[in-house]
Task: structure prediction
Amino acid sequence: MLTLYEELLLLTVHEDKGIFIGSTVDALKPGLVGAILAELALTGKICLTINRRLHLADDTPTEDPLLDGVITILKNSDKERKFGFWINTLNPKPEKLRRQITKGLIDKGIFTQEDDRLLWVIPSPLHPGIKASSKHSVIEHLRGVVLAQEEARPATIAFLSLVSACDLLELVFLRDERKIASQRLNELVVFHAMQDPNLETVQEITSAIASMVEEE
Result:
């Protein structure tokens, strides 16, 4: 099982060249930190206050070094702040974070590395019965949820929201699919956020990411 931040990163690796797609690099800077916060939100570790600040609701360690590092920083904060502040503050070295997440994916057997290239392990260890990469499986799942209205878990709704906020829909949907996909995706996110406080928090996170991506 992959985390939201791992799925977001692998989506931006070129299927054939094994390098990060150039147009995605800037979006990953707020995107990966936002995905870490979204992972914490899904498990109820953080939540949205009435004045739309980030509140640390549970500081119990998760055994994930990246998540626990963020929890420690939040725990030591002198006051509750907006999500945009934390997304900016928690990622002073974007390249280092990207390398950490990449190493984790290599350790999980998703990639191997050859010089500066990331080579996909096929079949994916996540889906050994399918002759395809992990990226292919992630994309097919997202397409099924949005275009074929397949059932979606909260994590999938959160990930779709992250992909949209980072302006990466072109990596999942064909050009003539994007308009309807964007409309259905927004409907899904809003519908589920109204019923799930954790997804409402994710929605606040992705709104902050989208604002930063637009400014780039």
Q: What stands out?
A: The longest helix spans residues 197-215. The radius of gyration is 17 Å. The mean pLDDT is 94.
